[in-house]
Amino acid sequence: MRKMNLVVIGYGGMGGWHAQHALNSDVVNLRGVYDILPERNALAESRGIHAYASYEDVLADEQVDLITVAIPNDVHESVCVRALEAGKHVICEKPVTLDCASLQRMCAAADKAGRIFSVHQNRRWDVDYLAIKQLAESGEIGEVIRIESRIHGSRGIPSDWRGLKAYGGGMLYDWGIHLIDQVMQIITAPVVSVDCRFDHITNDEVDDGFRLDMTFADGKSAYVEVGTYNFIAMPRLYMRAKDGSALISDWREKCQVVKCNYWHESDVLPVQTAAGLTKTMAPRDDITTTTYTLERPASDVHEYYRNFVKAMAGEEQPLVTHTQMMRVLRVIEVAFESAEKNQVIACNV
Questions:
Q1: Which of 140, 156, 224, 307 is deepest in the core (most CB within 10 A)?
Q2: Contact between 169 and 206 (Cβ < 8 Å)
Q3: What is the mean pLDDT of the chain?
Q4: Does position 154 have pLDDT exceeding 70, yes or no?
Q5: Do residues 76 and 104 share a domain?
């Protein structure tokens, strides 16, 4: 299979990331970039990367097979739809757009054009998430009961478009879209209720953090939290299952697992605490449990592009589907409603 010719629209942070990875890709050839800011095009040219004079020139180039869109969220729809209508396959940075009605129009344009369209959910290749996902799917510690997923920082919301509502700023769109997608890859049942609360510590216009509870139709639950004013970070991932628990304290750390081998309550002795005795919270011993760590899974984010190119050739199905994109964005819509009304919202997503 020949390499597919790629153009990256937007040569900022993520656009530069896509372009750099394309230069080392085994499935795409970076044909060029385009940015509305002349200085960014000049920067690309200084690095030996062709910069198109206009978006129209990109669309008119018959050698372009694939366009990756890495621009502010509020203009994703118009740019992606034009590319699809021009016969290009399209990868869009997250969030793919700001509401489900917009996403529906984008998916319809892709279907009409017969082109592959997907969102760049690159966090599916995070090794911390993969460790928890693989453990859940293995059944090693039984059926999942609850997953808690957190990202904590202490620098507030960035002072660029991410802090502006008009551009789709805020942490629910920025990081939430990743963490919700990860959870919904592990717990696949329909989401039946959402309870979300926002932080406005450093920014009054958009959320600079949020706390989100999701309940699923099969009784499982998930908690997703993003904080930008946390000077002590809580664990990155925690999973409770029927036969044990798993913890990843930091994305750089291995997954810690405690597996319950058998219940064995008959000889539990009360524990002396500062203010009295407790039998309920008496610690486990190494007879009834096994404690171990999991090696960090192998991961290669290039697999996203490899899959996408094979999908273009009809050899594979896209890893990130229209249905998955729509479900995640719908949960985010419900989360905004929950935060606005300050109540739990029933749904069927």
A1: 224
A2: yes
A3: 95
A4: yes
A5: yes
